[in-house]
């Protein structure tokens, strides 16, 4: 933390980096847009020189953040465990990942502020070490379903189930990165699950359960070479389509059968096909044949829209914002200023129309 040259106003140089990366800019690009030399920006971002009030005004205008955004002294967290181990994302350009991670971190800070006057109750997401169950991920998924009193068969609304357990689901723009979801859980906050809502709802449901798997299974680094992404997929499959419930329905699999099962289980035809193979209901040869048929029909890219499950909308973050408006009597300007956003950006991200939480007494 350094201080301005005048008026002794403190600022956090790390917030300059976060602001720049959240706008998808490199130092050179920001230098060209702002007129501040790259050398000066580099020293500022490394905490090696003070900054004038005039420079902050320029950065505020160029990066579209209010000036007090740069005064925040929140701890800044890095990439989470599940992101670190997600090998598939290595082909995403680092600049795009930097932008995504910076935006995620800023959202986390904003939500932390919004949660201060709110009582969400206890988070009911267990921490279960796979080693304690001999890496039987399916058993752990069954334990979580049982602890949440989920009835047999398909889950009617995954979003409601996870948010009722205390996690907050946040629709999020992942830019051009091929990312479906990211979950983070820090000690001072409930779990946050950032989800790409541009995906089909059956894929969103699977992603939510995949991220739930990470929250349950992977709060500590694996002690062996476990593929935590594979474990999270196995958790999601069993959680959404329990073996004992779906197995009797997987006889005589065909494309038509997959289409008929999709609206019932609210999972993709592809997920049901893979479940059939994993449970030994079809042979490897049959699996290859059905995947070829799915590809010819275009279903590997986009399954029939008429079979899609209904949209499940997150509500908890909407409720938190609405509580500030209805019970605390905050105006939109008040809330946007409090979280360090300009009014228009706050409204585009947060403004919804629900609310039934209670204040901390």
At the third CATH level, what is the topology name of the domain at 130-307? Arc Repressor Mutant, subunit A
The backbone outline, from C-alpha atoms, is elongated
Strand content: under 5%
Question: Mean of residue pLDDT?
Answer: 90
Total number of helical segments?
17
Instruction: Summarize the main sheet.
Output: 3 strands, mixed
What class would the helix/strand composition place it in? Answer: mainly alpha
The total beta strand count reads 5
CATH C-level category of the domain at 130-307 = Mainly Alpha
Low-pLDDT segments: 2-6, 353-361
Description:
- There is one protein chain.
- This protein is mainly alpha-helical and 361 residues long.
- Among the domains are: 73 residues, Orthogonal Bundle (434 Repressor (Amino-terminal Domain)); 178 residues, Arc Repressor Mutant, subunit A (Orthogonal Bundle), CATH 1.10.10.2910.
- Helices cover 49% and strands 4% of the residues.
- The protein is built from 17 helices and five strands.
- Strands 3-5-4 form a three-stranded mixed beta sheet, covered by helices on one side. Strands 1-2 form a two-stranded antiparallel ribbon.
- α1 packs across α6, α7 crosses α10 and α16 packs across α17.
Descriptive labels:
single chain, 361 residues, 434 Repressor (Amino-terminal Domain), Arc Repressor Mutant, subunit A, 5 strands, elongated, disordered N terminus
Topology (SSEs and partners):
Elements: E1 2-3, E2 10-11, H1 13-22, H2 27-34, H3 38-45, H4 53-63, H5 81-84, H6 94-115, H7 137-147, H8 158-164, E3 168-171, E4 181-184, E5 192-195, H9 201-217, H10 228-240, H11 243-246, H12 255-265, H13 269-278, H14 284-296, H15 316-326, H16 332-339, H17 343-350
Parallel strand pairs: 3-5
Antiparallel strand pairs: 1-2, 4-5
Helix pairs in contact: 1-6, 7-10, 9-10, 12-13, 13-14, 16-17
